[in-house]
Amino acid sequence: MSTSPAVPNAAFRALRGSRSPAEFAAAVRRAAREIGEQVACDARYVGRVESGEIRCPNYAYERVFLHMFPGKSLGDLGFTAREAVRGRGARETAAPPAPPEPPEPSDVPGHPPATARRPEEESDMLRRVFMTSGSAGMACATLGVPAPRRGAHAGAGRVGEPEVRAVEEEVRRIRLLDDRHGADGLFRRATEPLRAAYALLDSGRVSQQALCERLHAGAGELAVSVGWLAHDSGRFEQARSHYAEALATARVADDPALEAHAFCNTAFLADDAGKHREAVRAAQAGLRAARRLPSPRLRSLLHLREAAGWAGLGDRAAATASLGRAHGLFARGPSDDDPEWMSFFGEPEFAWQEARCHAALGDWPRAARHAYRATALQDGHFTRNLALYRVELALCLAKSGSPDEAAAAGHAALDLLDQVTSSRIRGIVTTTARVMLPQRRARGVQDFLARSGAGTGRPL
């Protein structure tokens, strides 16, 4: 492996211009969809390219970048020729190392990609990921890569960059698949990599302090991600346990970013579980941790979590005050210092969170206006969130006395539920259908009720 220092990619940084890494990553994902590609681009990936850590993108990213910047070559974008960075030429004469950048995972966990990849695109990074873990066999099976050979000395070596990087990539993979498909089909598959990540930590074989800090952060973020999968699939107690695990990891590592994330999700879970005072306390604890971080958007989200808790308690004044603080912080715009996991938190999510607060306070027309804004603004990349916003809009409209509009929004939500498996979203569909049963004579309502399974005994 080359030990040459990374050279910052100034050409690529110039192309980003005034956009934040998160905004540029969103533009990359949009461009990918335009040409039928699927890439998991986020702010961290953009940072790795700009720092020179990624000297040449994989083939999917190459096609996307050349589509975004017609007339330019990879060299014009600041990348090195593929043959010079452990590409095809290196593979002809040496054992196969990892390619310039790992390929995108299969869209459906546990299943192979729809089309075969070129040999040079296959990465052995995940194959190396959990080799020092006692859970290596199960972890590799979960990731869809070959397990270590029987009798191999798992755990005998030091934990280095490849293992830490693979834990981080697994977090991104879970988030990507959750955005597209929802949590129900992912939760059980995700628990084994989580166990393996903590086994790496417990091994005590991390080779450098910086790697140890990244591994703590990666394992903690993986715990939050698995907790979210449990939350979204209706497994509240398991979600609480995973969030607590992440919080403990944050405290051990003195990691305020992970601590704020764990408290943010704990507040959301508590609110969904009807424990509104706990939601307020968790959000406030997250805000204390976030004071150490230069991210207004993170504090904005935590104030929204606090507002939701106050609204659940019926405290309109406190909820309104928290919403005001959230608006002020959100208006400062995105920042390079925003945590990577916050890529979902844009105007659509803010509008939906605000809709939830007004709904909890019983102001259904106002909630419907914000829910409609969420559906209108949402990027289709976040399939699960779009389905969620649409069904929340249907519920708000039904509660507002607009059954025909509610039925239309409900149909739009059901259109996505073939792609999304989320017990939480389907629970809201059930609630919406029950609210609309007395309005079955309104235009479109009967069709929605039949399609949703209301009154037929069929599961939604």
TrEMBL record:
Protein name as annotated: C1 regulatory protein
Composition bias, Pro residues: 96-112
Family annotation (InterPro entries): TPR-like_helical_dom_sf (IPR011990)
Annotated stretches, region: Disordered: 85-123
